[in-house]
Amino acid sequence: MNPDQAYAELVRLSRDETVLASCLDVLDWDEEVCMPRGGVEHRAQQMALLAGLVHDRQTDPRYDDLLSTVEASSLVSDPESPQAVNVRELRRGFDRERRMPRKLVEESARVTALASQKWAEARKRDDVKIFVPWLDRIFALAREEADAVGYAETRYDALLDDYEPGMTTDRLSALFAHLQAQLLPLVDSLRGEPTPAPGHVLAREFPIDRQRLFAEGVAAALGFDLECGRFDIGQHPFCTSIGPGDVRVALRYYPRNFTRGFFALMHEVGHALYDQGLDPAHYGTPIGEAASLGLHESQSRLWENLVGRSHGFWRHFFPQLRSVFHEALHDVSLETFRGVINHVGPSILRVQADEVTYDVHIMIRFELERALLAGDLRGAELPGAWAELYQRYLGITPDNDRNGCLQDGHWSEGLIGYFPTYTLGNVYAAQLFDAAERAVGPLDESFAAGDFRPLRAWLGEHVYRHGQRYRVDAIIKRATGSAPDPSALIASLSRRYGSAR
Amino acid sequence: MNPDQAYAELVRLSRDETVLASCLDVLDWDEEVCMPRGGVEHRAQQMALLAGLVHDRQTDPRYDDLLSTVEASSLVSDPESPQAVNVRELRRGFDRERRMPRKLVEESARVTALASQKWAEARKRDDVKIFVPWLDRIFALAREEADAVGYAETRYDALLDDYEPGMTTDRLSALFAHLQAQLLPLVDSLRGEPTPAPGHVLAREFPIDRQRLFAEGVAAALGFDLECGRFDIGQHPFCTSIGPGDVRVALRYYPRNFTRGFFALMHEVGHALYDQGLDPAHYGTPIGEAASLGLHESQSRLWENLVGRSHGFWRHFFPQLRSVFHEALHDVSLETFRGVINHVGPSILRVQADEVTYDVHIMIRFELERALLAGDLRGAELPGAWAELYQRYLGITPDNDRNGCLQDGHWSEGLIGYFPTYTLGNVYAAQLFDAAERAVGPLDESFAAGDFRPLRAWLGEHVYRHGQRYRVDAIIKRATGSAPDPSALIASLSRRYGSAR
Question: How close B225 comes to chain A (CA, Å)?
Answer without folding.
Answer: 9
